[in-house]
Amino acid sequence: MKEDSPSAENMRGNSLVRDLPWLKPLLQTEFYRSCECKSSKQCNFYCRDCMGSPFCENCNNDPHKHEGHGSLQVYKSSSRPGIRIRGIKNLMDVSDIQPYLCNSFKLVYIHRKRKQEHESRINGRKGDKCEACGYELQCSTSKFCSIECKVNGVKDVEEETSTEEVHATATTRPTCQPLAQADPNSFRKRKRKGIPQRSPFL
After folding, report:
1. What is the pLDDT of residues 85-106, one digit of tens each?
2. Measuring CA to CA, which of 3, 13, 50, 78 is 20 to 30 A from 119?
3. Hey, which residues does 136 pair with through a beta bridge?
4. In DSSP terms, which residues pair with 100 in a beta bridge?
């Protein structure tokens, strides 16, 4: 697994991961390596139905492998894998993820910046920062620098909301009042319903 890829524990309970079962395997996939079919082309496709290993263009065009499946094509920009916005916007909301230009097309990165790149920019000029990792963003309307950071950011918000709800429930829960104790000097078995009053004289 990649060093910067989120662990299964970090993504547990995340609504994005629950609603999009292919998202977690995508984040844990390493692209642009040799394909299992031994072709000269690198793996830059991912199947949302199979959710297995990445594959090359030849495998994607093979009618016996992924015909009729939902495949995502992955592009390399600045040595990082990304997906074109037009290819993923109908699958998940990426409007709050920093877009980048790659050959005149806008894409979003799959993984967060590598550790070395992240540390070189996180302490740079003051500006808009990724809500998950603190990396500097170029677009003021963006909240995250990658799909991975959005998944982690949504998880953090859900955990914080859940904690606040539990705390609110605990503080507003009515406390039980102890029952009034009977007078130990009284022979009555039950408490009086009211204050006794003397009958008026005629």
Report:
1. 999 999 999 999 999 998 889 9
2. 13
3. 129
4. 107
